[in-house]
Each structure stands twice: as C-alpha cells, then as structure tokens.
Amino acid sequence: MSDANERSKRQAFRDKNYPNTVWKNNRVAYFFDRSASERVRRVFKKGAQVWRDNTCIDIYEDTCAISPDRIRVFMEEGCWSYLGRKGGEQNLSLGEGCDTEDWLDEFRLESRSTNHNYDLPYDVGSIMHYGATVGSANKNPTMIPYDKLHTRTLGSPFVSFYDILMLNKHYNCTDKCDPKTSAKCAMGGIPHPRDCSKCICPGGYAGRFCKERPSGCGQELIASHSAKTFTDSIGDKSSRTVREDFIKCHYLIKAPPGKKVEVKLLHFSTSRIAADGCKYGGVEIKTQVDQRLTGYRFVQFCSLDNVNTTLVSPLNVVPIITFNRLYQTDTVIQYRYL
C-alpha cells in the first residue's frame, strides 16, 4: 500500500495519466507466449469473455502482431500485470494458482485515496478484494469489515456487479446508452452498452429488465407468514478435485409488497470447504437494501460455524445463490415474511 493511512474504495480511477492508460478504442489485444499452458489459455479466455459480455471492451487474440499495443500472457511465478495500458508489448503473468478473471485494468482495493471511486460504494465482494485471512500466520482474520457478517465475503472468486459497473464507467461504456430511450432496469441494473434495450443485472437477477430469476437450477419461492423450508444439493460427493467452473443455483424468495423477508440458514453440510470468499462453495444471501452489492457469503454460509444465523431483508424479495466446485454441498434454508 503506497500510503499507510489512506484506503481507496474502488479499483480504477482517472489519475494524471488518464486517458493514456486506457486501451485505445476500448480494444485490448493479447497473445499467448509458448510458456502458457492449456489451462492458462482457457482461464484467460474465460476471463476475457466475462468482460466482453458485460462491457463495451473488446478483448481479442492478436496472433499476427498487428496491434502495436498488446498483452503477452505467459507463465511465471505469481500473478501480476501492469495497470492499464503501458504501450507496446506488456507482460501479464498467470502462474500456478492464478485461476480467476480479475486481470483487466484493475488493482487491489488497498491503494491510494486518489482513487475517487466513480461515486460507487465499497463492495467487500469485489473479486479484487483480499481475503480476510491474507498474510495470517494462524488463520485468524487480518482484516475485518465494519459488518462482521461479511468477513468471509472478502476474497470472492466471482466478478461482482460493482466490478463490472466500475469498468464500464472507466471506459465510458455507460455513456453509450441514452437514459431517455434505454431499458429501464430494475434492482439497480444498467443498460447494456452493446444493446441499450436490455440490462446488465446484479447477481441473483436476470431477464431483459432484471425482473426475473436467472435460468437453470433453483426456483422462485413465495413466502408466507408461516415458515417454509427448501433444500439445495449441488456438487459431487465423490469428487476430490477442484473444478475449474462453478455449479450455481438461483432461488428468488418473494413476499407481498410492503412485507420484509426473514431468512434462516438451518443446515450446511460441508465444513471442509470453508475458505475466504467461499472459493470452493457456499451460499450467498442478499438481504441488503442495495441489491447491487454482494450478499452475505462467508464462513457461516460455507461451513457449520453459524448455522441458525437469521437475516432480515427490508425488501420483499431475497435472491439466494448456492454455488459449488468441490465435493457436494447440501443447504437447508427457512424463510417467511414479516
């Protein structure tokens, strides 16, 4: 950290070098060095696709050295890259264990306060946030958020909605859609810069206007005054290998307008996968007012530590996301409206 007494809230900012550090015409060229393994190539391409799908930035493979500015992706010890565009050929290392998509023009949250944050709130679920126990010699937390229930949200393996929104602002993608004619997005979603008639949605929401549950496993659940429960099981009991991709199931609890939703974690089956950010599997419960923020996703929801934790949402909807890439996880949730 450059200034010991200063903390920033987001990853990208417009410093004295802006816009020279952004990629020209929002196009990012890369090529793979011979040292890059097949896994590194796969992971990098998946990460590039996430940003292409959710921004106006085009990330493409330049095998013929046509672009004067391009990224050389190679394998060296550690995960590192330059911040933004340097000019010419620049290096990006994806060493052993670098298996996330958090490389494009971002850097760790614990940096200068000259980062003015685009007026976005601090999201402890950002993929660029350090885990709670980073640097710990005894596995105890080295940092604790103001809301302690978010302790294990730190170190997330997922790109958050605010990560996506920040990068869209940094590259002026949000200017491409006229608010008068663009999609009217629910739950804090934003018009998609590649198609302003549809939305980019916060986690737990989908559909053209962010009013639906994401497709796939899971279901929409209608709360009543009496408590109901649902059980979710995902993964493979016999698996001992961490899968490259997560299995995800989306549930959306709805209550009548004006009612609050109470959610209680009754059971979570696997304590062996507890880790910062629940990087092997867990449950995310979104009971906060700002549905753009990452929900509670931490040790009590990826181990047995806080079974029977009760959360109350001020809204009449609560998305719940279960996810897994190691062993099998069984979750039992109780819910009702107040």
Order of helices and strands: EHEEEEHEEEEEEEEEE
Extended strand count: 15
Number of helices: 2
Determine the fraction of residues in helical runs and give it as a percent range: under 10%
Q: What do you see in this structure?
A:
Keywords: Disulfide bond, EGF-like domain, Glycoprotein, Hydrolase, Metal-binding, Metalloprotease, Protease, Secreted, Zinc. There is one protein chain. Helix content is 8%, strand content 26%. The protein is mostly beta strands and 338 residues long. A 5-stranded mixed β-sheet has the order 2-1-3-5-4, with helices on one face. The protein has a 4-stranded mixed β-sheet with strand order 8-10-14-12, with no helix packed on it. The protein has a 4-stranded antiparallel β-sheet with strand order 9-15-11-13, with no helix packed on it. Strand 4 (79-81) and strand 5 (89-94) form a beta hairpin. Mean pLDDT is 85; it is low at 1-10 and 100-115.
Please give the structural blueprint.
Elements: E1 27-32, H1 38-54, E2 58-61, E3 70-74, E4 79-81, E5 89-94, H2 161-170, E6 190-192, E7 195-200, E8 220-222, E9 228-235, E10 247-254, E11 261-268, E12 281-285, E13 310-313, E14 317-324, E15 328-337
Parallel strand pairs: 1-2, 1-3, 3-5, 8-10
Antiparallel strand pairs: 4-5, 6-7, 9-15, 10-14, 11-13, 11-15, 12-14
